[in-house]
Amino acid sequence: xxxxxxxxxxxxxxxxxxxxxxxxxxxxxxxxxxxxxxxxxxxxxxxxxxxxxxxxxxxxxxxxxxxxxxxxxxxxxxxxxxxxxxxxxxxxx
Length: 93
Hints:
Layout: H1 3-13, H2 38-52, H3 58-69, H4 77-92
């Protein structure tokens, strides 16, 4: 171990630095900016409209309930069969 090497390193740390702070070159003023397109704004309005719409249509439920309770609810067999075939076709693909 060389002790004199320590003194040489110490001398390097004691070197005076230039006076004053160096200021960086005039940095451009960067700011974040958000631009939303017209389609994006329309999408945002549509999302808000969907969020404010209730999931359950109470008026339709009340109508179906009353027709069921009055024994006036009738589903045609051809409409029922068409819906089943439609669902089957969607599931097949």
